[in-house]
Amino acid sequence: MGVNPNSERKLVEAPRQQQALKLNLDTQLRSGEVVLRTSDGLKAGYHTPNGDKVLVRTPSLSIARGECIALMGPNGAGKTTLMRTITNELPALDGRISLGVNVSVGYYAQIHEELIMENTVLEEVHRLKPLEPTQRIRTLLGRFLFTGDDVYKRVGDLSGGERSRVALAQLTLKSPNLLLLDEPTNHLDIAAREALESVLNDFPGSILFVSHDRYFVDALADKLWIVENGTVAQFEGDYTAYAEHLEREEAARKRAAQVPVKQNGAPREPTDDREMRKRKRQLETLEQEIAKLESRKAAIGEAINTAAQTEDVAKVTKLGKEYSEVEERLLDTYDQWAMAAAEA
User: According to the UniProt record, where is the region Disordered (predicted)?
Assistant: First the structure.
Protein backbone atom coordinates (compact mmCIF):
# COMPACT_ATOMS: atom_id res chain seq x y z
CA MET A 1 0.00 0.00 0.00
CA GLY A 2 1.41 3.42 -0.96
CA VAL A 3 1.89 6.23 1.50
CA ASN A 4 -0.38 9.24 1.11
CA PRO A 5 2.05 12.20 0.72
CA ASN A 6 -0.47 14.52 2.33
CA SER A 7 -0.74 12.25 5.39
CA GLU A 8 3.05 12.07 5.59
CA ARG A 9 3.30 15.84 5.34
CA LYS A 10 0.73 16.23 8.14
CA LEU A 11 2.70 13.84 10.34
CA VAL A 12 5.86 15.89 9.79
CA GLU A 13 4.08 19.16 10.49
CA ALA A 14 2.09 17.92 13.48
CA PRO A 15 4.62 18.91 16.18
CA ARG A 16 4.66 22.49 14.91
CA GLN A 17 0.89 22.68 14.93
CA GLN A 18 1.04 22.00 18.67
CA GLN A 19 2.93 25.25 19.22
CA ALA A 20 0.75 28.00 20.59
CA LEU A 21 0.00 31.08 18.53
CA LYS A 22 1.40 34.11 20.31
CA LEU A 23 -1.34 36.59 19.52
CA ASN A 24 -1.16 40.13 20.79
CA LEU A 25 -3.84 42.60 19.68
CA ASP A 26 -3.40 45.96 21.29
CA THR A 27 -4.07 49.57 20.45
CA GLN A 28 -2.62 52.78 21.82
CA LEU A 29 -5.25 54.93 20.09
CA ARG A 30 -8.25 55.77 22.26
CA SER A 31 -11.46 56.34 20.31
CA GLY A 32 -14.39 58.54 21.17
CA GLU A 33 -17.30 57.16 23.21
CA VAL A 34 -19.30 56.23 20.07
CA VAL A 35 -17.12 54.21 17.72
CA LEU A 36 -19.57 53.52 14.88
CA ARG A 37 -23.13 54.50 14.10
CA THR A 38 -25.56 53.59 11.29
CA SER A 39 -28.43 55.76 10.22
CA ASP A 40 -32.01 54.57 10.67
CA GLY A 41 -32.97 52.84 7.44
CA LEU A 42 -29.50 51.83 6.31
CA LYS A 43 -29.98 49.40 3.39
CA ALA A 44 -27.40 46.70 2.66
CA GLY A 45 -27.59 44.67 -0.51
CA TYR A 46 -26.58 44.65 -4.17
CA HIS A 47 -27.24 46.55 -7.37
CA THR A 48 -28.65 44.25 -10.06
CA PRO A 49 -29.74 44.86 -13.68
CA ASN A 50 -33.34 44.56 -12.43
CA GLY A 51 -32.88 47.06 -9.62
CA ASP A 52 -31.54 47.05 -6.09
CA LYS A 53 -31.73 43.83 -4.06
CA VAL A 54 -32.02 44.85 -0.41
CA LEU A 55 -31.04 42.08 2.03
CA VAL A 56 -31.01 44.04 5.29
CA ARG A 57 -32.61 47.29 6.42
CA THR A 58 -31.35 48.34 9.82
CA PRO A 59 -32.69 50.57 12.57
CA SER A 60 -30.22 53.09 14.01
CA LEU A 61 -27.34 51.02 15.43
CA SER A 62 -24.25 52.08 17.34
CA ILE A 63 -21.11 50.56 18.84
CA ALA A 64 -19.73 52.12 22.01
CA ARG A 65 -16.06 52.13 23.01
CA GLY A 66 -15.13 48.77 24.56
CA GLU A 67 -18.25 46.91 23.38
CA CYS A 68 -18.04 43.45 21.82
CA ILE A 69 -21.04 42.70 19.58
CA ALA A 70 -21.83 39.47 17.75
CA LEU A 71 -23.68 39.73 14.44
CA MET A 72 -25.87 36.61 14.25
CA GLY A 73 -28.71 35.13 12.23
CA PRO A 74 -29.61 32.33 9.81
CA ASN A 75 -27.28 31.65 6.90
CA GLY A 76 -28.22 33.80 3.94
CA ALA A 77 -29.89 36.44 6.11
CA GLY A 78 -27.33 39.06 5.05
CA LYS A 79 -24.79 39.11 7.90
CA THR A 80 -21.72 39.20 5.66
CA THR A 81 -23.39 41.68 3.30
CA LEU A 82 -24.11 43.99 6.23
CA MET A 83 -20.55 43.57 7.50
CA ARG A 84 -19.11 44.39 4.06
CA THR A 85 -21.38 47.44 3.90
CA ILE A 86 -20.14 48.61 7.30
CA THR A 87 -16.53 48.20 6.11
CA ASN A 88 -17.41 50.14 2.93
CA GLU A 89 -16.48 47.19 0.71
CA LEU A 90 -20.05 47.37 -0.56
CA PRO A 91 -21.69 50.78 -0.96
CA ALA A 92 -24.86 51.20 1.09
CA LEU A 93 -27.99 51.20 -1.08
CA ASP A 94 -29.39 53.87 1.23
CA GLY A 95 -28.39 55.48 4.51
CA ARG A 96 -24.91 56.00 5.92
CA ILE A 97 -22.30 54.62 8.31
CA SER A 98 -20.36 57.07 10.46
CA LEU A 99 -17.13 56.37 12.34
CA GLY A 100 -16.42 58.13 15.61
CA VAL A 101 -13.41 60.23 16.60
CA ASN A 102 -9.96 58.58 16.39
CA VAL A 103 -11.33 55.29 15.06
CA SER A 104 -8.91 52.98 13.26
CA VAL A 105 -10.56 49.94 11.64
CA GLY A 106 -9.12 46.45 11.24
CA TYR A 107 -11.14 44.12 8.98
CA TYR A 108 -10.78 40.33 8.90
CA ALA A 109 -12.65 38.89 5.91
CA GLN A 110 -14.17 35.41 5.89
CA ILE A 111 -12.47 34.12 2.74
CA HIS A 112 -9.43 36.43 2.87
CA GLU A 113 -10.07 37.91 -0.55
CA GLU A 114 -7.96 40.90 0.52
CA LEU A 115 -4.80 38.76 0.46
CA ILE A 116 -2.60 38.96 -2.65
CA MET A 117 -2.10 35.33 -3.64
CA GLU A 118 1.10 35.89 -5.65
CA ASN A 119 2.94 37.44 -2.69
CA THR A 120 5.07 35.47 -0.31
CA VAL A 121 3.94 35.42 3.33
CA LEU A 122 6.69 37.92 4.17
CA GLU A 123 5.79 40.24 1.29
CA GLU A 124 2.08 40.09 2.08
CA VAL A 125 2.48 41.17 5.70
CA HIS A 126 5.32 43.62 4.98
CA ARG A 127 3.26 45.49 2.35
CA LEU A 128 1.01 46.89 5.08
CA LYS A 129 3.95 48.69 6.70
CA PRO A 130 6.76 48.73 4.13
CA LEU A 131 8.96 50.96 6.31
CA GLU A 132 9.06 48.41 9.12
CA PRO A 133 12.38 46.54 9.40
CA THR A 134 12.18 43.12 7.75
CA GLN A 135 13.46 41.44 10.91
CA ARG A 136 10.52 42.85 12.92
CA ILE A 137 8.09 41.42 10.36
CA ARG A 138 9.83 38.04 10.53
CA THR A 139 9.65 38.11 14.33
CA LEU A 140 5.92 38.87 14.10
CA LEU A 141 5.41 36.00 11.65
CA GLY A 142 7.27 33.65 14.00
CA ARG A 143 4.58 34.31 16.61
CA PHE A 144 2.08 33.04 14.01
CA LEU A 145 4.13 29.87 13.40
CA PHE A 146 5.79 31.03 10.16
CA THR A 147 9.48 30.34 10.74
CA GLY A 148 12.52 29.76 8.52
CA ASP A 149 11.69 29.34 4.84
CA ASP A 150 7.94 29.32 5.61
CA VAL A 151 7.94 33.10 5.17
CA TYR A 152 8.83 32.61 1.48
CA LYS A 153 5.81 30.43 0.69
CA ARG A 154 3.31 31.90 -1.76
CA VAL A 155 0.04 32.90 -0.11
CA GLY A 156 -1.81 31.07 -2.89
CA ASP A 157 -0.11 27.81 -1.85
CA LEU A 158 -1.16 28.05 1.79
CA SER A 159 -3.94 26.07 3.46
CA GLY A 160 -7.03 27.81 4.79
CA GLY A 161 -5.64 27.77 8.32
CA GLU A 162 -2.31 29.24 7.22
CA ARG A 163 -4.03 32.05 5.32
CA SER A 164 -6.08 32.78 8.43
CA ARG A 165 -2.83 33.16 10.37
CA VAL A 166 -1.47 35.56 7.73
CA ALA A 167 -4.63 37.68 8.01
CA LEU A 168 -4.36 37.67 11.82
CA ALA A 169 -0.72 38.76 11.58
CA GLN A 170 -1.77 41.66 9.36
CA LEU A 171 -4.46 42.61 11.86
CA THR A 172 -1.88 42.65 14.65
CA LEU A 173 0.41 44.90 12.61
CA LYS A 174 -2.36 47.46 11.98
CA SER A 175 -3.06 48.00 15.72
CA PRO A 176 -6.71 49.09 15.13
CA ASN A 177 -9.13 50.07 17.90
CA LEU A 178 -12.21 48.73 16.07
CA LEU A 179 -12.14 45.13 14.89
CA LEU A 180 -14.63 43.94 12.25
CA LEU A 181 -14.29 40.17 12.03
CA ASP A 182 -16.20 37.90 9.62
CA GLU A 183 -16.06 34.25 10.82
CA PRO A 184 -12.63 34.62 12.46
CA THR A 185 -12.52 31.01 13.74
CA ASN A 186 -12.97 29.41 10.30
CA HIS A 187 -10.01 27.14 9.39
CA LEU A 188 -8.39 27.58 12.82
CA ASP A 189 -7.59 24.53 14.95
CA ILE A 190 -8.77 24.29 18.55
CA ALA A 191 -5.56 25.73 20.03
CA ALA A 192 -5.65 28.69 17.62
CA ARG A 193 -9.33 29.36 18.37
CA GLU A 194 -8.61 29.36 22.10
CA ALA A 195 -5.67 31.74 21.61
CA LEU A 196 -7.82 34.07 19.51
CA GLU A 197 -10.63 33.98 22.08
CA SER A 198 -8.20 34.89 24.84
CA VAL A 199 -6.62 37.81 23.01
CA LEU A 200 -9.99 39.22 21.93
CA ASN A 201 -11.25 39.05 25.52
CA ASP A 202 -8.28 41.22 26.53
CA PHE A 203 -8.57 43.61 23.56
CA PRO A 204 -9.10 47.18 24.88
CA GLY A 205 -10.94 48.43 21.78
CA SER A 206 -14.33 47.60 20.24
CA ILE A 207 -15.33 44.49 18.28
CA LEU A 208 -18.11 43.59 15.85
CA PHE A 209 -17.91 40.00 14.63
CA VAL A 210 -19.82 37.34 12.72
CA SER A 211 -19.54 33.75 13.93
CA HIS A 212 -21.49 30.49 13.80
CA ASP A 213 -19.44 29.18 16.73
CA ARG A 214 -21.90 29.52 19.62
CA TYR A 215 -19.22 28.85 22.25
CA PHE A 216 -17.00 31.55 20.76
CA VAL A 217 -19.92 33.99 20.71
CA ASP A 218 -20.85 33.18 24.30
CA ALA A 219 -17.27 33.70 25.47
CA LEU A 220 -16.91 37.15 23.87
CA ALA A 221 -20.11 39.03 23.10
CA ASP A 222 -21.90 41.28 25.56
CA LYS A 223 -24.51 42.32 23.00
CA LEU A 224 -26.07 40.63 19.96
CA TRP A 225 -27.30 42.05 16.67
CA ILE A 226 -29.72 39.46 15.27
CA VAL A 227 -30.17 39.64 11.48
CA GLU A 228 -33.49 38.07 10.54
CA ASN A 229 -36.46 38.79 8.29
CA GLY A 230 -34.62 41.61 6.55
CA THR A 231 -33.85 43.70 9.62
CA VAL A 232 -31.66 43.77 12.75
CA ALA A 233 -32.87 43.30 16.31
CA GLN A 234 -30.63 44.10 19.30
CA PHE A 235 -30.29 41.94 22.39
CA GLU A 236 -28.47 43.13 25.50
CA GLY A 237 -26.58 40.15 26.89
CA ASP A 238 -24.53 37.14 25.86
CA TYR A 239 -25.61 34.13 23.82
CA THR A 240 -26.58 32.05 26.86
CA ALA A 241 -28.97 34.78 27.99
CA TYR A 242 -30.37 35.01 24.45
CA ALA A 243 -30.91 31.23 24.25
CA GLU A 244 -32.71 31.31 27.61
CA HIS A 245 -34.85 34.19 26.33
CA LEU A 246 -35.82 32.13 23.26
CA GLU A 247 -36.62 29.12 25.45
CA ARG A 248 -38.93 31.21 27.63
CA GLU A 249 -40.71 32.57 24.57
CA GLU A 250 -41.10 29.06 23.13
CA ALA A 251 -42.38 27.67 26.45
CA ALA A 252 -44.95 30.48 26.66
CA ARG A 253 -46.06 29.77 23.09
CA LYS A 254 -46.47 26.05 23.87
CA ARG A 255 -48.47 26.76 27.00
CA ALA A 256 -50.77 29.03 25.04
CA ALA A 257 -51.24 26.35 22.37
CA GLN A 258 -52.11 23.54 24.79
CA VAL A 259 -55.87 23.67 25.19
CA PRO A 260 -57.20 20.26 26.32
CA VAL A 261 -60.08 19.00 24.18
CA LYS A 262 -62.07 15.80 24.96
CA GLN A 263 -63.83 13.60 22.47
CA ASN A 264 -66.07 10.74 23.76
CA GLY A 265 -64.68 11.27 27.25
CA ALA A 266 -61.02 10.73 26.24
CA PRO A 267 -58.46 13.51 25.93
CA ARG A 268 -57.36 14.17 22.37
CA GLU A 269 -53.63 13.94 21.72
CA PRO A 270 -52.24 17.49 21.85
CA THR A 271 -51.00 18.86 18.56
CA ASP A 272 -47.68 19.64 20.26
CA ASP A 273 -46.98 15.89 20.79
CA ARG A 274 -47.30 15.24 17.09
CA GLU A 275 -45.16 18.28 16.36
CA MET A 276 -42.49 17.03 18.76
CA ARG A 277 -42.22 13.70 16.94
CA LYS A 278 -42.05 15.52 13.63
CA ARG A 279 -39.21 17.73 14.91
CA LYS A 280 -37.34 14.69 16.22
CA ARG A 281 -37.45 13.16 12.74
CA GLN A 282 -36.31 16.45 11.30
CA LEU A 283 -33.36 16.52 13.72
CA GLU A 284 -32.30 13.03 12.67
CA THR A 285 -32.45 14.00 8.99
CA LEU A 286 -30.41 17.16 9.61
CA GLU A 287 -27.80 15.21 11.59
CA GLN A 288 -27.39 12.79 8.68
CA GLU A 289 -27.01 15.73 6.27
CA ILE A 290 -24.41 17.37 8.55
CA ALA A 291 -22.37 14.16 8.64
CA LYS A 292 -22.41 13.94 4.82
CA LEU A 293 -21.42 17.59 4.38
CA GLU A 294 -18.63 17.38 6.97
CA SER A 295 -17.23 14.32 5.19
CA ARG A 296 -17.43 16.09 1.81
CA LYS A 297 -15.78 19.22 3.21
CA ALA A 298 -12.89 17.18 4.61
CA ALA A 299 -12.43 15.36 1.27
CA ILE A 300 -12.33 18.65 -0.67
CA GLY A 301 -9.83 20.05 1.83
CA GLU A 302 -7.54 17.08 1.19
CA ALA A 303 -7.95 17.52 -2.58
CA ILE A 304 -7.04 21.22 -2.28
CA ASN A 305 -3.85 20.33 -0.38
CA THR A 306 -2.92 17.81 -3.08
CA ALA A 307 -3.58 20.28 -5.89
CA ALA A 308 -1.60 23.00 -4.07
CA GLN A 309 1.41 20.66 -3.83
CA THR A 310 1.35 20.16 -7.62
CA GLU A 311 0.75 23.91 -8.17
CA ASP A 312 -2.43 23.20 -10.12
CA VAL A 313 -3.87 26.71 -9.73
CA ALA A 314 -6.97 26.05 -11.83
CA LYS A 315 -7.88 22.99 -9.78
CA VAL A 316 -7.23 24.80 -6.49
CA THR A 317 -9.51 27.62 -7.62
CA LYS A 318 -12.27 25.22 -8.70
CA LEU A 319 -12.01 23.19 -5.49
CA GLY A 320 -11.87 26.35 -3.39
CA LYS A 321 -15.18 27.46 -4.86
CA GLU A 322 -16.72 24.03 -4.18
CA TYR A 323 -15.29 24.08 -0.64
CA SER A 324 -16.94 27.47 0.03
CA GLU A 325 -20.28 26.22 -1.33
CA VAL A 326 -20.19 23.08 0.84
CA GLU A 327 -19.12 25.10 3.88
CA GLU A 328 -22.01 27.51 3.32
CA ARG A 329 -24.47 24.61 3.06
CA LEU A 330 -22.96 23.09 6.20
CA LEU A 331 -23.30 26.34 8.18
CA ASP A 332 -26.89 26.67 6.97
CA THR A 333 -27.61 23.10 8.09
CA TYR A 334 -26.00 23.81 11.47
CA ASP A 335 -28.39 26.76 11.84
CA GLN A 336 -31.39 24.62 10.87
CA TRP A 337 -30.32 21.95 13.38
CA ALA A 338 -29.87 24.55 16.16
CA MET A 339 -33.33 26.00 15.50
CA ALA A 340 -34.93 22.54 15.37
CA ALA A 341 -33.12 21.46 18.57
CA ALA A 342 -34.33 24.57 20.40
CA GLU A 343 -37.93 23.72 19.46
CA ALA A 344 -37.71 19.96 20.14
Answer: 255-277
